[in-house]
């Protein structure tokens, strides 16, 4: 199983367990997240770039992977992603660099997976 499949499988499996607890607050929070990234006045591509930059500054590898996947689906190009990386690194500072490395690795996997489809 590759990096992308591992992440997506784990995320799906655990989200199912979380949702099966039927906790109203958690369900509402998940719904709020879903609605925040939906098409609106700001397009999805831009929202994903914002989410990616914020995730990098907050140093959340799971969030970074999620937003990289969504950014890829939204049609971001490598050059655009690297501009987001540059802004996040500028804002977050050198502590972002380890997350930047993992983000680049994940993006390369997304590109490789797309070429093999």
UniProtKB/TrEMBL annotation:
- Tell me the domain of life: Bacteria
Q: What lineage, starting at the top, does this entry show?
A: Bacteria, Pseudomonadati, Bacteroidota, Cytophagia, Cytophagales
Its transmembrane ranges are none
Query: InterPro entries, from UniProt?
Result: AhpD-like, CMD-like
Q: Which PANTHER family match?
A: ALKYL HYDROPEROXIDE REDUCTASE AHPD, BLR3452 PROTEIN
Indicate what this protein is called per its UniProt record. Carboxymuconolactone decarboxylase family protein
Residue span(s) of domain Carboxymuconolactone decarboxylase-like = 27-105
């Amino acid at each position: 199983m590759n990096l992308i499949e591992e992440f997506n499988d784990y995320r799906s499996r655990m989200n199912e367990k979380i949702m099966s607890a039927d906790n109203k607050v958690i369900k509402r929070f998940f719904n709020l997240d879903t609605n925040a990234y939906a098409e609106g006045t700001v397009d999805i591509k831009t929202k994903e770039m914002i989410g990616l930059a914020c995730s990098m500054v907050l140093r959340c590898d799971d969030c970074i992977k999620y937003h990289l996947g969504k950014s890829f689906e939204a049609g971001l190009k490598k050059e655009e992603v690297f501009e987001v990386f540059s802004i996040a690194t500028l804002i977050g500072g050198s502590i972002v660099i380890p997350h930047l490395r993992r983000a680049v690795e994940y993006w390369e996997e997304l590109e490789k997976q797309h070429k093999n489809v």
